[in-house]
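Troubleshooting: if your tokenizer reports a length mismatch, compare your output against this known-good record of 59 residues.
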Amino acid sequence: MAVQHRGTNWTPEEDRRLLDLIEAGKSWVFISANLKRPVKTIRDRISQMRRSGLKAKGK
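Known-good structure output:
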């Protein structure tokens, strides 16, 4: 099965869904299936979002 979003940018809606799923305590596998993206891509996105958040706060 091919990954639907391969090589595409994250949309604001996907970012919100990702954060909601993480806050709900869902597993990486569940989040991956829900967003139709590989687990590694999801983990990379979370890292990027955290770095961006820290930079925006001046830390």
